[in-house]
Design brief:
The complex is a heterodimer of chains A (about 150) and B (about 170). Chain A has helices spanning about 1-20, 25-30, 35-60, 75-95, 95-105, 110-135. Chain A has about 150 residues and is mostly helical. In chain A, helix 1 crosses helix 5. The radius of gyration of chain A is 18 Å and the shape is globular. The relative contact order of chain A is 0.11. Chain B has helices at about 15-30, 40-45, 55-80, 95-100, 105-125, 130-140, 140-165. In chain B, helix 2 packs across helix 3 (about 55-80) and helix 6 packs across helix 7. Chain B is globular. The chains are: A mainly alpha (about 150), B mainly alpha (about 170). At the A-B interface, helix 1, helix 2, helix 3, helix 4 and helix 5 of A face helix 1, helix 2, helix 3, helix 5 and helix 6 of B.
């Protein structure tokens, strides 16, 4: 199975690399309303994923016969504040989490610094989680989802 | 204008969007996994940090698929470069170089600071462009639609401030 996940990741990463999602200029072009490429890519992905997901969930079984399990994401105050913060970071770096890794693969040296920052940011979040719980109405650690 | 990567012309958006949808669906249909990449940041943190948050069950059980998927993303980028004119380290940043124009150390600092926002923000929001933007929105989840609106808004605002205010481009210059 490990090889299959690597393969899925590699194809996903290759497509990200050729879509413009890993390209600083295309990401800024999206936020400047100057380039349609990223809106088209993300919009097409959503429009096609939605009916596929509906069908898989209605079928209720994976290709291998296992019951389909989709963990839903909780709505908290963090959904809003975290989303805004992530948006700031996406604009600054021109990368979201997937493209950080793809860019490292492409050979873009500065993406290593973005990864270091993202790991420190995530590490900081996890370390102060107990202190953020009441402020953002987050679930107890044991029930904190990772999906 | 092409990509920073060898000045390639990107795939048509309908093709890249369809391909991302296909992988997202295959991941669920074949391996029963919900697409999500920023959760993988926690997997990487869990290799070094021993506090309760990173050692909880959800992280331990997700690691066996997320870490290989993340490794695949790096591999995909490498293959993309190797097949299109060869792999070589680069500092090139296109628009940033022509407008903001920092040296190597400045770029590393800029990217590190942006990364802090990404790491902290995605974990607080419980997802990023993949888990919220593609999967959750397609699955009509309220939290994903709200989060996607927020990170699109945060990005729009920040880029507008950087390129239309702080380093104004296209303003007659």
């Amino acid at each position: 199975m490990t090889a299959l996940y690597v393969a899925f990741g590699a194809v996903f990463g290759f497509v990200l690399s050729r879509s413009g999602a890993t390209d600083y200029g295309f990401v800024q072009g999206m936020f400047l309303f100057e380039r349609f490429q990223m809106y088209g890519t993300i919009g097409t992905a959503i429009v096609l994923t939605a009916p596929g997901l509906w069908w898989i969930r209605r079928r209720g079984r994976t290709a291998l016969g296992a019951p389909v399990h989709v963990e839903l994401k909780p709505m908290t105050r963090g959904t809003i504040v975290g989303g805004l913060l992530f948006g700031v970071g996406w604009s600054i770096t021109g990368m979201c989490p997937g493209p950080i890794l793809v860019n490292i693969g492409e050979g873009k040296v500065y993406a290593v610094a973005a990864l270091a920052g993202a790991l420190v940011g995530a590490g900081l979040f996890g370390s102060v989680y107990p202190r953020l719980q009441s402020l953002f109405h987050l679930p107890p650690i044991a029930r904190a989802s990772q999906c | 204008m092409g990509l920073i990567l060898h000045d390639l012309t990107p795939l048509h958006w309908a093709v890249s969007g369809a391909a991302l949808a296909a992988i997202t669906l295959a991941l669920l249909f074949i391996t029963n996994r919900r697409l999500g990449i920023s959760g993988g940041l926690e997997d990487l943190c869990s290799l070094a940090l021993s506090n309760a948050y990173f050692q909880r069950g959800a992280v331990r059980s997700g690691r066996p698929w997320r870490l290989p998927f993340l490794a695949g993303l790096v591999l995909g980028g490498f293959v993309s470069a190797a097949l299109s004119g060869g792999w070589a380290p680069t500092w090139s940043l296109g628009l940033f170089d022509s407008v903001v124009g920092l040296g190597h150390a400045g770029k590393l600092l800029w990217m590190f600071v942006g990364g802090l926002f990404i790491g902290f923000g995605t974990r607080l929001a419980n997802g990023c462009t993949s888990g919220h933007g593609i999967f959750g929105t397609s699955n009509l989840e309220w939290s994903s639609m709200v989060s996607t609106a927020c990170f699109m808004g945060g990005g729009l605002l920040t880029t507008q401030v950087i390129y239309r205010v702080a380093f104004a481009v296209g303003g007659g210059s």
